[in-house]
Amino acid sequence: xxxxxxxxxxxxxxxxxxxxxxxxxxxxxxxxxxxxxxxxxxxxxxxxxxxxxxxxxxxxxxxxxxxxxxxxxxxxxxxxxxxxxxxxxxxxxxxxxxxxxxxxxxxxxxxxxxxxxxxxxxxxxxxxxxxxxxxxxxxxxxxxxxxxxxxxxxxxxxxxxxxxxxxxxxxxxxxxxxxxxxxxxxxxxxxxxxxxxxxxxxxxxxxxxxxxxxxxxxxxxxxxxxxxxxxxxxxxxxxxxxxxxxxxxxxxxxxxxxxxxxxxxxxxxxxxxxxxxxxxxxxxxxxxxxxxxxxxxxxxxxxxxxxxxxxxxxxxxxxxxxxxxxxxxxxxxxxxxxxxxxxxxxxxxxxxxxxxxxxxxxxxxxxxxxxxxxxxxxxxxxxxxxxxxxxxxxxxxxxxxxxxxxxxxxxxxxxxxxxxxxxxxxxxxxxxxxxxxxxxxxxxxxxxxxxxxxxxxxxxxxxxxxxxxxxxxxxxxxxxxxxxxxxxxxxxxxxxxxxxxxxxxxxxxxxxxxxxxxxxxxxxxxxxxxxxxxxxxxxxxxxxxxxxxxxxxxxxxxxxxxxxxxxxxxxxxxxxxxxxxxxxxxxxxxxxxxxxxxxxxxxxxxxxxxxxxxxxxxxxxxxxxxxxxxxxxxxxxxxxxxxxxxxxxxxxxxxxxxxxxxxxxxxxxxxxxxxxxxxxxxxxxxxxxxxxxxxxxxxxxxxxxxxxxxxxxxxxxxxxxxxxxxxxxxxxxxxxxxxxxxxxxxxxxxxxxxxxxxxxxxxxxxxxxxxxxxxxxxxxxxxxxxxxxxxxxxxxxxxxxxxxxxxxxxxxxxxxxx
Length: 818
Description:
This protein is an alpha/beta fold. Strand 12 and strand 13 form a beta hairpin.
């Protein structure tokens, strides 16, 4: 077995080489890809990326066709590498049995305990030790002889128990059909003496392996299948990789394997918490403050009955090639994982195809490319307990230190079943993600929480750009979840709490979202009930003002908008609400059909929206919600009309839609709005009471002509108490009297707390007809676009003393509120 630690120390340079940075905006690191042929001892990577596919490629795409042409080049490149690899793997084939590996009957689970008997667990551990050595001996022999295939054979229902397997150059680990590799439940065998004995070069003096936990580097348990700095490696076959992780009875930690550290429990000191919380927080603090990776020591804790220990409890990932080039994972079934399933880190030229991942445990992401380039993921099925597919690039300070994005990744013809997200980008994307192409994938479970998910926050940051999704089919999404979710402030409260617990100061690292195109996507085409999700689009940017109290925000930092996002030639059927959006700047919908929504849309702080050739009939989407937005355009789009007496081209149509959707005004009955009907003083006060949210009122009746039983009583009481409206004299309010245009302007002005105004009304021919008490209100209303005047021949008149109609009220109210 190996004894030298040369390669281990070279690997930990990735934890020592960069300048310490705490959430600043960028970092420059020397990559092997930026050098000439061959790698250097102080380079982060051990390989050179093919020309035209490297990290510095700044390709932008003129249109969708150009983007998909580029995706085809990525696929051709990876397929060519796989063909070359298979020629190497065909040179020689050996069986692990030839090197002493022994299959065994499956050890039984003792009823009620969810675990094996102590005797069987001990026997399993001994078999795992034996087989780990035998499997690695076969791998090492094949690699040293120039490459080939190491076969784990089918064994007539028996299985091979093992601990962590580390791959070497030019080796394909083939799990035959009906063969099963079961990874031992003895957690101590993934670190310590066995790892040192077998993998001396690949572990440190404690037998710990350089790996990642939630995208932060550390020394920890070995991933179940691992390789560092290798080239031409593969895991293939039609057999099964069984991690044997378990949540037991879901309640008692003693019944669980690996996942007991994720389960909350009450300890002897009275604390109820996840065992992993303290070490997880400690690790993230080390990553944030640039503690050398070699000093981030975890693995087996000295205190299984945790009461504050922070030296262990961090679960390993299942398959993790690290800093490798030319990787193939094909055909196998993966189940019962402690953590993430397939997690290539700092890898290049990777193919994952025909894999079946079925694991519904904590943090069971299906496939998580991380800081990885030139990857094809196709013809797989992911049925998991977390994101089916999540592209990542490092977390917070550690992501900045290493500074390598994930890019050039193609996803095709995959099936996404249960999971938090189908195609997900994030949340650990500090170094950025770009050039991602997804097409012909299918989401077919109502347990899927989002079809397309983008997530980061102002601490993780990162740039999401050049994202192209095409012809994906979303059969169904969980009823309480969105179809498309962009959350640029994901889980930030917990992130801030963790920073505070680490006592780490940090600057805001504002994420960016741009150049994203989703086209040809059809959601719930069958129109089944409760299959279209809660929202068609849930898009959440944020204001800098909302984060200023929790971190240092550099002067001049702009609000975080979701920008340059296009959806075209797509349909969304049956979402409860079509749009739930905040801080979006530059959303384009082109030939999009949305039908079946019943909840009015929520659109706030949005601008530059472009809707073209869209059909929103049969939904709660209303034109008025978009026309009030800054620099937004609507061209050749169809909307349902709420009222039969309001035509689509009426000058007040958008305003009627708006106030109706916001429940500020209702119709007059019979499906009519009554645009020409005069408004009474009670009616107009009711509109402002509705805007205020119908607050409770108290006190004695303010006016003798407003009985407590009147439908407008609360509105009048509220308006009087808040200085919005006063009476007409002699203790009366005159609720049935018609309201004039200047009176309504005065009510709005008072509701706005009477801001100071300057200027005059001299440009209006009838300015002199404005009552003295209304001059300031009318001036304010005209300057703010609330009153734009009435056309009278060639003149624009204020007509201040004209009775205000319901149509005019709707327009003024929309302009005021919006």
